[in-house]
Amino acid sequence: MPEEIEIRLLLDAIYxxxxxxxxxxSPASIKRRLTAAKLHMKERTLSALQEKVLRDPQVFTKLxxxxxxxxxxxxxxxxxxxxxxxxxxxxxxxxxxxxxxVAGVSTGEELYSFAIVLREEGLxxxxxxxxxxxNPEALHAAERGLYAxxxxxxxxENHRLSGSNCSLSEHYTAAYGSAVxxxxxxxxxxxxxxxxxxxxxxxxxxxxxCRNVLIYFDRSLQDRALGLMKDSLCRRGFLGxxxxxxxxxxEHAASFRDFVANERWFQRC
Length: 269
Description:
By secondary structure, this protein is of the alpha/beta class. The chain has nine helices and ten strands. The strands form two sheets. A seven-stranded mixed sheet has the order 6-2-1-7-8-10-9. The radius of gyration is 19 Å and the shape is globular.
């Protein structure tokens, strides 16, 4: 199919020109995102888009938003965060300092969810959180911690279902149609570019979250990403995955045991 050839050539061009590697992402996901980009950027073909991407870094920056930014929500899958609060946090209390890696942080909803639970459980002051993504624009948005006020209703309900005894409003200030989350939540956060496709482990952590990221990868890239998680985690460290993600069939499955399997929490052996 000509379009499949165009996609392959465009992804090769992106890798050679900008060193972003999308070649092992799920073909269905990449096709869907590139089709949307082509339409919104008013290009007739992907070949025409490729020519502009190669010659104009600003066009690539715009395309990157379509390739990387996913749908997210604060305290998405509240049962996952309830399990974190009630079963993972007690284990983390045993460490004098805590290092957390949130991979594929996008615009920050997942990051603030972890930070809020750690604050409410009295652990945020001794935690360092590494928030990584391949999209610089998404990282800037995460660092700002600014979200549309109409999203707060679902955020608040998810927060309640995560087992909190206080109001989410204690963690943000609302004004002019937006809510900005407290700067203190990101005081110990390190924001950094990092690609699960090409980069290596950069720190030892007690907890790694890689949620709703693997679903966009093919099997080989899933194994690479899980290998990075495995190598970054200390013994008995914790790995959190998305509700549709699993360690089953991964070459690294034997390195983990189920911790709260129905909520996709695993522990490094």
